[in-house]
Amino acid sequence: MRKLAILGSTGSIGTQALDVAARHSDRFTVTAIVAHSSAEKLFEQVRAFRPQIAALTVEPGEIPEDIRNACQWMFGENVLLDVVRACDADDILVSVVGIAGLAAVMESLKCGKRVLLANKEPLVAGGELVTEAAKKAGHPLLPVDSEHSAVFQCLQGAGPNRPERLILTASGGPFRTWAKEDIMMATKEQALKHPNWNMGRKITIDSASMMNKALEVIEARWLFDMPAERIDVLIHPQSVIHSMVEFEDGAVMAQLGTPDMRLPILYAMSWPERLATGGARLDFAQMKALTFEQPDLERFPGLGLAYEALHTGGTMSAILNGANEIAVDAFLHDRIRFGQIAQLVEETMHAVPLIHHATLDQVFESDRMAREKAQTLLKTSRFAV
Question: Residue 171: which of 220, 240, 124 has the closest Cα?
């Protein structure tokens, strides 16, 4: 029986983690759940799972009487860290949105807890710090993203065969076949219609711009200690192959499955064992084709920015990430066009000072400066809608 705390329990990953935890209630008990502001959803989760701790960043006006004394309640801006320090958990699933997850990951490792990582930003912004902390803690970082979970699963079956190249697959998003000019003018409604996955608004926009894949390239560099030039991205519209690993002898291993996040979530929760998700199985006889394409960096320039950030090093990935969060928010609030997301990120990357071998405070400072510069650039005439 493993004790699990979920940071971001009301989001897509969090709710699916609770689903598989309930399916295997003999193996997992949920001891803490945290949400940002989705109070009603969190209340329902408290009723269903009876955790020891429930927390919200935004304090609700009232806690329903039937669950007021059901658990310990925590509120406030620092609630992620408060819960990590206070909870009785073996594993912390970090599925919050944005750089807020970085401090929670570092604190979880400091407290000796195993981290199940569904939040990209900790490794994107603080990869060097996080990987060093994980080594000191003696726990592997267990990836929950489907692509990184796929690589991780392939590596488990590699034996002594040394990995030479990682191949991250991407669906191509809703604009895979669109012309560059049409992508530039895409609407929110169009960008939020992902062909294969059901995700939150921010990550869905990132997927449409391929900035999500850019962040995954950076994440893979740190998770698997692989240089950027040996991490490739391949468009695979069917989303059946979730990623591949090429080994030194020329063999390629791929992890296949239906587009169901419960598989990578449960694999991280149960590793090194495997448990049934209850999801749909692949029917190979029904597959007409598995197709692949090279990504077009002219139409999706955000992907190229990931390689630039990795080659530059230092806090450049943190700057990229902070600028992208501002850019996506600006697009969702009709302040810029879709095609200007990558433009705003690139201009910010070239404008914010770089720090090599940054401390945690310096990573957060780079993130703050990136956001501030991006907001300043948004006020200029070239980003007027």
Answer: 240
CA-to-CA distance for 187 and 316, rounded, in angstroms?
A: 29
First vs last Cα of the chain: how many Å apart? 54
Amino acid at 121: E
Angstrom distance (rounded) from CA 189 to CA 192 = 5
In what order do the strands lie in the sheet containing 72-75? 72-75, 53-56, 28-35, 2-7, 91-94, 114-117, 142-143
Q: Which two tokens stand for residue 156?
A: 């488990």
CA quadruple 203, 208, 212, 213: dihedral sign = positive
Average pLDDT estimate for 231-237: 97
**All domains of the chain, ordered by start, with CATH?**
2-143 (3.40.50.720), 148-383 (1.10.1740.10)
Mean pLDDT calculated for residue range 167-174: 94
Residue 279: the pLDDT is 85
Q: Cα(266)–Cα(276) distance, rounded to whole angstroms?
A: 8
Helix (H) or strand (E) holding 255: strand 252-256
Helix axes 121-137, 100-110, angle to 10 degrees: 10
Which contacts (CB < 8 Å, 24+ apart) does range 253-261 have?
253/154, 253/157, 253/158, 254/150, 254/154, 255/149, 255/150, 255/151, 255/153, 255/154, 256/282, 257/282, 258/282, 259/146, 259/196, 259/197, 261/12, 261/13, 261/16, 261/144, 261/146, 261/197
